[in-house]
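As described in the Methods, two query proteins were run sequentially through the folding procedure within a single session, without resetting any intermediate state between them. The first query and its resulting C-alpha cells are shown here.
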Amino acid sequence: MSDQHTQSLLSEIEQATDDLIELTQALVRIPTLNPPGEYYRDICEFLDQRLKKSGFTTEFIRASGAPGDSDQYPRWNIIARHEGKASGDCVHFNSHTDVVEVGNHWTVDPFGAELIDGRIFGRGTCDMKGGLAASIIAAEAFIRMYPEYGGAIEISGTADEESGGYGGVAYLAERGYFSSDRVQHVIIPEPLNKDRICLGHRGVWWAEIETHGRIAHGSMPFLGDCAVRHMGAVINEMESSLFPALKLKRTAMPVVPEGAKQSTLNINSLHGGQDQPQEDYTGLPSPCVPDSCKMIIDRRFLMEESLPEVKSEITGLLDKVKANRTDFSYEITDLFEVQPTMTKQDAPVSVAVTDAIKEVLGKSPDYVVSPGTYDQKHIDRIGRMKNCIAYGPGILDLAHQPDEYVSVDDMVDSAKVMALSLVQLLSVA
C-alpha cells in the first residue's frame, strides 16, 4: 500500500465526518433498550436501508426461542455482506445494537444524541453505536477507494449483548455465521479506547445461593428458623476468608483496570422473606420469620483458574458454614458461565490493527483484556474463531454511565484504523 493510497483513504474518511456524526446520531435516537429488547427490528431496518445503498446484501435473522425472544420483543439481528471482485478472506465487524437502561442523573436527553463540543451524548453512544457507525464509514470508504478488492466485508448488528448475547451472536454462531469457511477475521468495535486492542476477557460464573429456614410468627421467632440470619453467616464467611483470598489471586493477562487483575466476587442481589408488595400496595408486610433467602453472586475469574476450582471455593465455604451452624441448609444453582478467552497478540487481525494504529496515531497500541465479557466469548466458544479482537472508539469507563458520550475525533481515528486494517487483510491492487 503506497503512501498516496493511504493518504487518499484517510482523506476519504475525514471528508465523511459529517456523515459519521449523522449516522451515529440516527442510531442513538433508536432507543433499543434491553431489557426488554425494544426497537430491534427498527434498527435492523435502518441498517438495511443504509448498507444496501453501498452495495451490501442483507439478511434478517430472528433468534426464535432464544432467552427473551417473544412476539412482543422479538430478537432481530442483521448481517450485511459486500462481496469483492475476487476471492479472498472475509473481515467481519460485529456490533451489538442493544443499550442498557438509562438510569438517573442525566443532564441531557439520553436519546437526543446532541453534539456538544465535539462529543455526541446519549445512551449507547460509547457502548457501542459510535463503534458501529465508525465500522460502516470505514467499510464504505474502503469500498469506494478499492472497488476491485478481493474478499468480502460483513457488518452485523446483533441483539442482547448486554444480557449475555444469546439472542444475538450466540444464536448466529450456532448456525454457522462465524464458521471459518465463511469468516476469517472478526473485529468487535467495543469502546476500549482508540489506542488499545482488546484481546479477550476474564471468565464469569453467576450463581444463586439460597439458604433455607422455617416460617413462624414474627413475635415468636424462636419457633421458626431465620433464613436471612443463615445468609448473614454466609456473608460473614465471605468477608473473613473468601474476599481476602481472592485479592491474592493475580493474573498475567493484561486486564484493565488494575483492580481487575485479581479475582473478584460481587453480590449482585440479596432478598429474604416474603416477596415485595405491589407498587400500589400501601399496607405493611405480614409478621413472619423468613424461610428463604436468595443471593445472586457474580464471580469473575482468571485464565490461571479453572471453573471447577472457582465453584468449589463457594461450595467449600457453604459446607464450612454448615459444619458450624445448626439446621443450616442451602441450594446453589448455576445461572451463567463463560470461560476466559484471549486471542494471541500476533494473530493476523491483531497485527493488522496494530499496524493501522501505528499509521494513524503514530504509536504502538496497548494490548488489554476486558474485566467483563462481551460477544467474543460466543465467537470463540461456539464459532471456534480465534482470530477475533475488540477495537473501537470510546472510553470504557463511560459505558453504562449517565451523560455517556463518544468523541467525534475518536470515531474518525477509529474509522481510519478500521479502513487501513481492511487494506492489510483483504486483497487490493
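Immediately afterward, the second query was submitted; its sequence and C-alpha cells are:
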Amino acid sequence: MISTEELVDTYPNLYKIDRELHKLVQKIEMLNYINPTNIEQEKRNFFASKYNVNPNFKYKRIDFNAHKLQQALFSQDIDTIQDEETRKFYREVIYDYSGLIQCIESIGKGEKFYFNVLKSFGTPTEKDVQNAQFILHFKDEKFNQEMFPVFNVDEALAYFQEFAKKFDFQYNVKISNKISAAAMVQNNTQTLFLKKNHRFSANQLKVLANHEIGVHMVTTFNGINQPLKIFYNGFPKNVETQEGLAVFSEYMSGCLTLYRLKELAYRVLAADSLRKGFNFCDTFDLLHNQYKLNREESYNISLRAHRGGGFTKDYTYLTGLKKVYTYYKRQKDLNTLLTGKVNIGNADLINTWKEKGIIGDNPHRNFAFDTNNNESETIDFILENLK
C-alpha cells in the first residue's frame, strides 16, 4: 500500500475529494436519528389501546444544516478525478449521501420520508416476498435451552466484553432505552449499544456478537485504517451488503437458526406492508393475528418498519444474505467485503484499487469466516433455494 504522502502526490484530486467528503458526512448516520425517543412509552400506550391506536413517535432533532450540506456535496469537482471508474464511483457517492440527507431531513414527516427512503433503500420485490413466505412455510424447530431469554443486559455486556478480546481493537459498550433493536453499532463513535431491559438468550448473544462485532465493528475498524475515508463513511447502497455479511457471519459461526431466518422473513413482510399503505396497526395485525407472532415481536418488527414514516431497510437483510452466500459459494474472497462499509457490487473496483496500492490489506478479520460451522441441513436447503 502506498503511504498517505504518496497517495496525495500520485492521486491528489482523489485524495482531496475523499477528505472533503469525509469532513462533510460525519453527521449523516441514519441510525442516530431514525430511532424514536419515546419507544417504551408508546409501546405501553399501544398495548393499553388493545392495538387500536397508532403510536405517535418522537425523534431527535437533526443537528446540521441539510441545505448547506447538500450544496457542499454538489460543489465537489468530481471531474478532476482522472480514472473514469473511480470518478463514476465518487459521483454515485455524492448522489447517495444527498439521498440520505433527504431521508434524515424528512424523518417523522410521513409519506415524504417514505418516498425518500424508496430512493435510498428501495422496497421488497415480489421475489423477495416469495422468499420470505418460502422460509415461513418451514415447521418451527424444537425450542432448545439456548433459545430461552435468561440473560439481563449487564450479563450481555460482560459477554460482549469477553468476546471482544479476540479482536485487536477497542470499542465502547453502552446501555440505551432509545434503540429499536436488541443491539446496535454506531459507526462514527465505535460504540455498541445494548437495549436496556432486554432479556437475551444464549443463542441471541452469539448471533449479536458475530453480527455486530464480527462484521459491523470489523468493517468499521478496517475502514478507519484505509487511506480513503470512503471505506469508513460507507459506499453507496452499502447497507444490503453489510447486513447480508452480518447474517452470513451468524451462519458461518453456527448460530443462524430457522427462528432467526423467520424473523428476517417477517421483516420483509413488514417492509412490504408499507407499499400496500398499511399503518402501524395494520402491520401489527398482519404479524400478530394472521401470522400468530407474539405481541412483543410483532410490535418490534412493526416499529422497525414504521419508524420515521416508513423505513424499508429491513428487507435487505435477506436479499443481502443471499448475495453474500452466492459470493461465498463462488469461492470469492470474503475479505474484500470486510475492507470497510462497502457494497458487493464494487468488489472489482476495490480489487483494482488494491492492485494499484491505493488501499491496503485488512488489519482485522472475522474469525467466523475461517470455517463453516453451520450444522443445520434446513438452513443450507433454504439458502440454496432462495431465488
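Residues 4-385 form one domain. We note this only descriptively and draw no conclusion about the first query from it.
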